[in-house]
Design a protein that fits this description.
By secondary structure, the protein is an alpha+beta fold. The chain has one domain. It is 23% helix and 18% strand. The strands form 2 sheets. Strands 1, 2, 3, 4 and 5 form a 5-stranded antiparallel sheet that branches. It has a 3-stranded antiparallel sheet with strand order 6-7-8, with no helix packed on it. The chain is globular, with a radius of gyration of 16 Å. It starts with a helix and ends in a 5-residue tail after the last strand.
Length: 156
């Protein structure tokens, strides 16, 4: 993609890896076993709503719209170890970094560094697993199907 096209895409709020939508970019790695999503990673463009906002409660939508800076990109995350709730404001550099590390082939080293729960990726066998295939203890230690253990909860 040449620089001119890149600038045009950024100006109109489209995302680089999901050009069929001008609202948000979903970066969802799949479970190595069942192919279900291991983490929901969404980058919402300025002045847009998340893709699944229609499934949110009225209170969640009101809170999101009240506190969100609609001039900024927003990052919404939910993985095996938790979520960032209604999302966080991110700058263009973080947006581009997230899109880069979640473009196939995935940059597992960067994913493990960026996310406390590695977005569902086992740090030893380098495979993604969904919540169903991680056994997560009451103190946030996850055990993958191959019996590797790692912390999935940032609070422990």
């Amino acid at each position: 993609m040449n620089l001119y096209k890149l600038i045009i895409l950024l100006l109109i709020g489209m995302t680089l890896t999901s050009c069929n939508s001008n609202e948000s970019n979903r970066l969802d790695p799949e479970c190595s076993i069942c192919k279900k999503s291991t983490a929901k990673i969404e980058i919402v463009s300025p002045n847009k709503d998340p893709k699944e906002i229609e499934y949110w409660s009225k209170e969640m939508i009101e809170s999101y719209r009240k506190y969100r800076d609609f001039n900024s990109f927003y990052f919404i995350y939910s993985g095996p170890g938790g979520s960032n709730g209604l999302g966080d404001e991110i700058d263009i550099e973080r947006k581009e970094r997230l899109e880069k590390i979640f473009s196939k082939p995935y940059n597992l080293k960067a994913i493990k560094k960026e996310f406390y729960d590695a977005a569902g990726c086992c740090k030893k066998c380098d495979k993604f697993y969904c919540k169903k295939h991680w056994f997560i203890s009451s103190i946030g230690v996850g055990t993958c199907p191959v019996d590797h253990k790692q912390s999935l909860d940032p609070h422990w």
